[in-house]
């Protein structure tokens, strides 16, 4: 395909042309009101989502699923900015579609296998950390693929390749088979979950937390955010906030409803003039929307600072190369704020948005003390991908770095004060060593 004219991202200029994302493996073809996406590796290509320009001279686009994004120029760089996304993707002009897209990868067993395995090879961030030799495993399984391979057999081969990663931000969905693969939690999580994740989410977490509420808190434990937050007061007028999720805070769908409920809850909690300290418990949090964690952090500071910097893998042949860092700020929130001592309780079920929230507090002053155990070690939102046969899959392709350039994938965020949480003997004897240690950090008990 020839280069399309007019590589321009001015406020009113059309963003016509062929563009390549730096990291993320996408090529975009923009011509007139039309936006087409191609998901590309060195040897495969699948057509992705399509979008339309919202107005003839606008650089805002709307995809078929209703999501919106813009193309923005900040000289000398160009960026794709998705509405509601904390990250943005750097764009570079390309000479045209890669040769592998003419034509796109065929819908054959081997074509689907190659799209899946090459995408992981070029974008997944943690093979070495998880001790998986991806290329060897792929070579072993490739010989099982032939023209007679059935969809069911292909599903078992692909899911079997990612099962050893034990990475909950990976997945595979085959609607025609009515099958999906959800990755297991990393080793060590079973002690708390005990096999049935759905039961644990519905009732198991509250059973574990019952000792904390009964023994360490005074008076009624108040629910906020449709029960996803529980708040009480411990000795020394130290507030205790348990966050079970970073989402589902409001019956109104979307971020606006969630953040409104969050702000109303914090107005009450932080509006207490007698508050002497705050313990935030995310030991049982399954994650959610990173933006909500940033909103909470913004109510715990009087100055703006960097929460973390996001970098995507940018070189399929070299796993150590990443895109330019996108710094994500914690902005000072409106309403009552708390600048006093804060302790965060963490554990192996602290995952995803609960981890990015915890990481967002690392740049706060005064220092937020982490008490408990290392977190799950999954930070990046999943990169969604398609197979030629209509299946979809996902994988984490970026790292979240702290101010010193460190990322915490797989290992998780380590505690400042190590304490094992929810041990059988402690639950039996009515103890929660985690909150007890947090209160000692606060100078209580």
Automatic annotation (TrEMBL):
Coiled coil stretches, renumbered:
none
Domain named Tail specific protease is located at: 204-420
User: What Gene3D superfamilies does the annotation carry?
Assistant: 2-enoyl-CoA Hydratase, Chain A, domain 1, 3.30.750.44
SMART domains under this entry? TSPc
UniProt-listed InterPro entries: ClpP/crotonase-like_dom_sf (IPR029045), Tail-specific_protease (IPR005151)
Q: Which organism is it from?
A: Paludibaculum fermentans
Name used for this protein in its record? S41 family peptidase
Kindly give the Pfam families that the UniProt entry links to this protein. Answer: Peptidase_S41 (PF03572)
Domain of life here? Bacteria
Q: What processes in GO biological process is this protein linked to?
A: proteolysis
One molecular function GO term is: serine-type peptidase activity
């Amino acid at each position: 395909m020839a280069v399309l004219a007019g590589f321009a991202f001015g406020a009113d200029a059309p963003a016509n042309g062929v563009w390549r994302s730096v990291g993320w493996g996408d090529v975009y073809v923009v011509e007139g009101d039309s936006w087409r996406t191609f998901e590309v590796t060195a040897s495969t290509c699948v057509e992705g989502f399509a979008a339309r320009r919202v107005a003839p001279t606008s650089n805002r686009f709307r995809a078929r699923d209703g999501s919106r994004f813009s193309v923005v120029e900040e000289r000398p760089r160009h960026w794709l900015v998705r509405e509601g996304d904390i990250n943005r993707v750097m764009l570079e002009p390309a000479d045209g579609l890669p040769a592998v897209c003419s034509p796109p990868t065929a819908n054959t067993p081997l074509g689907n296998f190659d799209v899946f395995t090459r995408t992981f090879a070029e974008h997944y961030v943690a093979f070495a950390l998880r001790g998986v030799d991806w290329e060897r495993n792929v070579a072993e399984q490739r010989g099982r693929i032939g023209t007679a391979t059935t969809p069911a057999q292909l599903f078992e081969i692909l899911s079997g390749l990612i099962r050893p990663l034990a990475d909950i931000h990976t997945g595979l969905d085959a609607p025609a088979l009515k099958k999906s693969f959800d990755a297991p939690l990393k080793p060590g999580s079973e002690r708390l979950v005990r096999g049935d994740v759905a039961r644990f989410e519905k009732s198991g977490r509250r059973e574990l937390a019952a000792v904390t509420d009964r023994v360490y808190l005074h008076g009624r434990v108040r629910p906020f955010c449709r029960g996803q937050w529980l708040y009480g007061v411990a000795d020394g007028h130290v507030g205790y906030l348990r966050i079970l999720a970073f989402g589902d805070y409001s019956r109104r769908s979307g971020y606006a409803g969630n953040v409104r409920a969050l702000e109303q809850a914090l107005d009450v909690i932080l509006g207490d003039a007698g508050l002497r300290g705050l313990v935030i418990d995310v030991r049982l949090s399954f994650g959610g929307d990173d933006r909500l964690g940033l909103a909470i952090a913004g109510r715990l500071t009087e100055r703006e600072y960097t929460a973390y910097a996001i970098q995507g893998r940018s070189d399929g042949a070299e796993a150590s190369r990443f895109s330019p860092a996108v710094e994500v700020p914690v902005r000072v929130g409106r309403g009552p704020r708390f600048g006093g001592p804060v302790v965060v309780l963490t554990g192996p079920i602290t995952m995803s948005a609960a981890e990015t929230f915890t990481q967002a507090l690392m740049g706060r002053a005064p220092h937020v003390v982490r008490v408990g155990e290392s977190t799950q070690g999954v930070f990046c939102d999943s990169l969604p991908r398609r197979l030629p046969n209509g299946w979809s899959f996902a994988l984490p392709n970026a790292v979240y770095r702290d101010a010193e350039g460190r990322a915490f994938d797989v290992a998780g965020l380590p505690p400042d004060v190590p304490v094992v949480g929810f041990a059988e003997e402690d639950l039996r004897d009515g103890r929660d060593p985690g909150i007890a240690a947090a209160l000692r950090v606060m100078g209580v008990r």
